[in-house]
Amino acid sequence: MHLSLDGFVAGPNGEMDWIKVDEEIFDRVGERISEGDTALYGRVTFQMMENYWPTAADQPTATKHDIEHSKWYKKAHKVVLSKTMEGKGLANTTILSDNLSDNIKAIKQQAGGDILLFGSPSATHSLIQLNLIDGYWLFVNPIVLGQGIPLFVDIKDKINLKLLNTRQFTCGVTELNYTVE
Amino acid sequence: MKKLIAAINMSLDGVCDHTAMAPDEEVHQHYTDLLKEGAAILYGRITYQLMEDFWPNLVKNPSGNQALDDFAEAIHEIPKIVFSHTLNHLEWENAVLAKKALQDEVLALKQIADRDFFVGSPGLIISLMNLNLVDELQICVHPVVAGSGRLLFNNIQERNALKLVKTKIFSSGAIILNYEPIYAPGL
After folding, report:
1. What is the DSSP string of A83-125?
2. Can you give the pLDDT of all 187 residues of chain B as single tens digits?
3. Which of A97, A167, B115, B140 registers the highest number of CB atoms within 10 A of its CB?
4. Which residue among A143, A152, A173 places its CB closest to the CB of B159?
5. CB of B137 within 8 A of CB of B16?
6. Buried b (16+ CB within 10 A) or exposed e, A65-74
7. Backbone CA torsion sign across B56, B61, B65, B70
8. Using CA atoms, how far apart are residues B11 and B20, in angstroms rounded to an integer?
């Protein structure tokens, strides 16, 4: 998840123009996601992904990162949280419309490696509420937005974290890896 | 010109209440060393009163926790400049009420201070960021999601682009992110 220093994942209207991504960050993301085979999305983010990644490698302007991520995306088991979507005809895709807690616990059992939740602020909020997040993989951007969509909302009890590792990128982004204690 | 450095603790979700996190000895040691290098520290009334209720007592009656006692000594020694519309007398030695408005006081200090100086209370930090007067931000992010409490960056008026200078990691999992604001129009 990309985060501003003041804890927002997007601007007030969903703006993501402030998020810094470059080769160095793509390489790091590629390295980590290649360790797992399951991705989790909210409906909105999934639809964005689905419109882009399956064909991203075929574009004449495709970068090394586009080709690698497209390949990973097509192979990955994609789990989508949505009450309205139908999953017919979508390869390697499971739609979860209810009973999130049990369903996600079952997927945690099956998945090879970590399940990575990409973007998807609303899905993240639901999963935090249900206590289903085991760790946070954050890219803190060098900016204070002042307003926007926060990563953490309606947290009832304090969540203690353990910092596993960090990395400082040339573009000014700091990677923070936490597990929930 | 000397620099104004904003140094403060916050939780990962941006809460800056001192009750939201528990700085350990290593973090206190860091702040003790930092305070010893500074010319002064600026506080608003509320933070100042919290400090005044706690640290001078610890200087008189040390706790036995070396890191805490050293910090108490350092915060006691450093000159404190307090911005308040209501206070007219301060009990703590080395503390004075600001005579000028915030902006004028800070601009003057940047000229005359012999070392960098700090701002340590959330309201003042944000006011000074909105005035483009903070030269460096040292945010110590503690490994906790507080869930409720005062948000440090609540009243920021517009986007502030920053330049990451360095980070410092503590064994508790706290990390100091050190930034310089980029005050360029249009960002």
Report:
1. SS---TT-TTEEEE-S-HHHHHHHHHHH-SSPEEEPS-HHHHH
2. 999 999 999 999 999 999 999 899 999 999 999 999 999 999 999 999 999 999 999 999 999 999 999 999 999 999 999 999 999 999 999 999 999 999 999 999 999 999 999 999 999 999 999 999 999 999 999 999 999 999 999 999 999 999 999 999 999 999 999 999 998 654 4
3. B140
4. A143
5. no
6. bbebbbebbe
7. positive
8. 7
Tokens of A12: 């007030």
What residues in chain A have their Cβ under 8 A from chain B's Cβ atoms? 5-7, 18, 136, 140, 142-147, 150-152, 155-163, 166, 168, 172-174, 176, 178
- In this structure, is the dihedral angle defined by the CA atoms of residues B157, B158, B159 and B163, taken in order, positive or negative? negative
Contacts of A122 (CB under 8 A, 6+ apart): A42, A44
Give, as one character, the DSSP assignment of residue A156: -
Q: Which of B126, B137, B165, B151 is nearest to B11 (CA)?
A: B151
Is B159 in Cβ contact with A152 (below 8 Å)? no
